[in-house]
């Protein structure tokens, strides 16, 4: 069996790793011109399901490394004013396993065949039941199964399920990171909390590695090369719809809304790494009607994109990857046919995927009351 995975995000790479480990051929086709072509390095909180899923997709010899590059998170989420005074509580904060997305992505990339500069433009199902994927600047590729793991603007979804389209909530999200130094000691209570002046919210999260990832790989899995990054603070500002962002950089857009805020908060943004700061739109994709099962399917944000305030997008993409991996292994071993395996995956994924989107959108108004949810 040969599987073509479109998209080298967390979901697509986890699936390709899981298939490779089971001896199933999987090629990954990525639109970006190179693996490090754009900002990918924010801090993610994985829940036990997401973490177990990524673990199951990775070879067991890398489990000690995986365990070394993650840290446990648990914090009560406070609501603070711009001077860092407590003005409320959001209740139990997100508990889970914190990982840097860029570091996890590098681990997932190891040993895979990833074709970069390969933007999928369309596909068609051949008479023999296989599928031919077409790309902008490379030859077509034929596979027994095409998996669209190509994110919220999925080109695979446009063909497979054209009526399933993203909803722009109107909410903008500016995210970046700043090296964590002693200078920011006064901010420690703010990590995990929401800082708000009513109009905008700033969220801070500390990424403190037990061992620097590059060093951890050298010690625990010499066949893996991880990026050389140190501890940092991830900051994210949620901006309500209709706010003008003019032509500001990500950092300046945030600073322009922080007049009079605590000086260390402003310094934190000023000292951010500009290459790791970006402005994103919060868009959701709700799984719509099922399509007739065939040799093409979707996973991750391509079929159920959540609001980042739900903290469940990566978790759900990883869950998909692990579930589809299991179904395809059964097909590969001849215990069931391929289309039955894909149908089983889609039936389960539609159900929990829709729930993930619903619960993430439910949490968005606490940060942006004017969000457009449908
Ligand atoms: C700031 C932020 C913080 C987040 N925090 C959390 C968190 O704490 N916990 C959590 O669970 N989730 C979190 N998420 C959500 C999570 O990052 C995403 O849900 C997850 O990365 C989706 O993975 P994916 O593999 O489906 O898609 P993506 O990671 O979006 O990957 C899609 C890939 O497909 C490629 N692609 C697109 N079009 C094409 C094409 N035509 N041809 C070929 N390739 C293509 C893209 O370049 C990309 O590499 C967060 C998201 C953001 C933005």
What does this structure look like?
Helix 1 (10-21) runs parallel beside helix 9 (313-332) and helix 3 runs antiparallel to helix 6. The protein is an alpha/beta fold. The model has no long low-confidence stretch (mean pLDDT 92). The protein has a single domain, classed as FAD/NAD(P)-binding domain. The protein contains 10 helices and 18 strands. It binds flavin-adenine dinucleotide. Flavin-adenine dinucleotide binds next to helix 1, strand 3 and helix 9.
Task: Record keyword descriptors for this entry.
10 helices, alpha/beta, 7-stranded mixed sheet, binds flavin-adenine dinucleotide, 30% helix, single chain
| Main sheet attributes: strand count, strand direction, barrel closure | 7 strands, mixed
Bound molecules: flavin-adenine dinucleotide
Along the chain, the helix and strand elements come as EHEEHHEEEEHEEEEEHEEEHEHHEEHH
Q: What is the CATH first-level class name?
A: Alpha Beta
Uncertain segments are none
CATH fold field value: FAD/NAD(P)-binding domain
Helix content: 25-40%
Q: Helix tally?
A: 10
Tally the structural domains.
Answer: 1
Report, as a whole number of angstroms, the end-to-end distance.
39 Å
Residues in β-strands, percent? 25-35%
Mean pLDDT: 92
Shape: globular
């Amino acid at each position: 069996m040969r599987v073509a995975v479109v998209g080298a995000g967390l979901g697509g790479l986890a699936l390709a790793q899981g298939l490779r480990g089971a001896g199933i051929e999987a090629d990954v086709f990525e639109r970006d011109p190179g693996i490090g072509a754009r900002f990918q390095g924010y801090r993610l909180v994985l829940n036990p399901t997401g973490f177990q899923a990524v673990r199951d997709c990775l070879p067991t010899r890398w489990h000690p490394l995986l365990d070394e590059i993650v840290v446990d998170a648990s914090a009560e989420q406070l609501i603070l004013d711009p001077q860092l005074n407590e003005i409320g509580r959001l209740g139990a904060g997100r508990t889970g396993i914190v990982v840097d997305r860029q570091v996890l992505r590098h681990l997932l990339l190891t040993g895979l065949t990833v074709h970069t500069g390969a933007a999928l433009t369309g596909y068609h199902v051949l008479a023999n039941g296989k599928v031919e994927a077409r790309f902008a600047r490379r030859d077509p590729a034929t596979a027994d199964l095409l998996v669209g793991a190509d994110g919220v603007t999925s080109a695979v979804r446009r063909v497979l399920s054209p009526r399933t389209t993203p909803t722009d909530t109107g909410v903008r999200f500016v995210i970046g990171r700043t090296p964590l130094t002693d200078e920011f000691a006064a901010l420690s209570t703010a990590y995990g909390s929401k800082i708000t002046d009513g109009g905008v919210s700033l969220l801070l999260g500390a990424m403190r590695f037990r061992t620097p990832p590059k060093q951890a790989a050298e010690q625990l899995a010499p066949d893996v090369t991880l990026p050389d990054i140190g501890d940092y603070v991830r900051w994210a500002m949620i901006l309500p719809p209709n706010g003008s962002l003019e032509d500001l950089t990500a950092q300046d857009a945030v600073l322009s809304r922080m007049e009079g805020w605590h000086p260390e908060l402003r310094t934190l943004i000023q000292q951010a790494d500009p290459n790791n700061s970006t402005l994103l739109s919060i868009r959701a994709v709700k799984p719509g009607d099922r399509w007739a099962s065939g040799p093409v399917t979707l996973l991750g944000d391509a079929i159920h994109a959540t609001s980042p305030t739900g903290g469940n997008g990566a978790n759900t993409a990883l869950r998909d990857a692990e579930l589809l991996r299991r179904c395809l292994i059964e097909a590969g071993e001849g215990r069931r046919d391929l289309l039955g395996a894909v149908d089983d995956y889609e039936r389960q994924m539609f159900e929990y995927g829709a729930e993930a989107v619903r619960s993430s959108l439910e949490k968005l108004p606490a940060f942006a009351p004017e969000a457009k949810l449908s």
